[in-house]
């Protein structure tokens, strides 16, 4: 996408009522108060690295009694998810453009019931390991913003990242409640797992297996 096209999308996105950006001076005031944006007290589910928000929107359609926030840094991707949510008139979806690294400044302890991470960048080199969204510093962050007995869900095509994540979660005391190494091995795929993101479709077209895990944070 060229620079003018990106600029146009950013301009449009700035006016969307369902997008909040870390650059807004009042964004930090939402810490602990996200439910006020939805005008109810329904549970809050986050999708991190949401890209075009495929999971966020699909989950919101499935669960009208829960609130969903898709988080990503890239404005033109957030634009797509936010636009779709507006077209579908979904009132239980917001998008937050932010660095995931800084989420503790925007969400209070135990504010989220679940976190989904779908197809995060694998950062395969040792040098890039810190940037993996399941690196220890991120697990500490998720533990903080998740409720006790909350759930972390990870979907990836990358076996090395999957094993790295499992290892890190176990070392940090998380309980692994589900581990599937090829979700499409069976024809009976759980509805929650059969939602396919932009990246998942690419990986499936390339013949890759899809891995899934679910974990519960350690007790504080
Ligand atoms: C490979 S894409 C996957 C997008 C989407 N989940 C999907 O499956 O189609 C990874 C996404 O993570 C986002 N991302 C990576 N690191 C991030 C960070 N530290 N903070 C916010 N977004 C991040 C990128 O902007 C990108 O959209």
TrEMBL record:
Keywords: Methyltransferase, S-adenosyl-L-methionine, Transferase, tRNA processing
Pfam families registered for this protein in UniProt: Methyltransf_4 (PF02390)
UniProt-listed SUPFAM superfamilies: S-adenosyl-L-methionine-dependent methyltransferases (SSF53335)
Binding site for substrate: 157, 197-200
Class in the EC hierarchy, top level: transferase
Gene Ontology CC terms, in alphabetical order: tRNA methyltransferase complex
Molecular function in Gene Ontology: tRNA (guanine(46)-N7)-methyltransferase activity
Membrane spanning residue stretches: none
Protein role: Catalyzes the formation of N(7)-methylguanine at position 46 (m7G46) in tRNA.
Family according to the record: Belongs to the class I-like SAM-binding methyltransferase superfamily. TrmB family.
Listed PANTHER family: 3-DEOXY-D-MANNO-OCTULOSONIC-ACID TRANSFERASE/TRNA GUANINE-N 7 - -METHYLTRANSFERASE, PENTACOTRIPEPTIDE-REPEAT REGION OF PRORP DOMAIN-CONTAINING PROTEIN
Name of this protein: tRNA (guanine-N(7)-)-methyltransferase
Origin species: Candidatus Magasanikbacteria bacterium RIFCSPHIGHO2_02_FULL_47_14
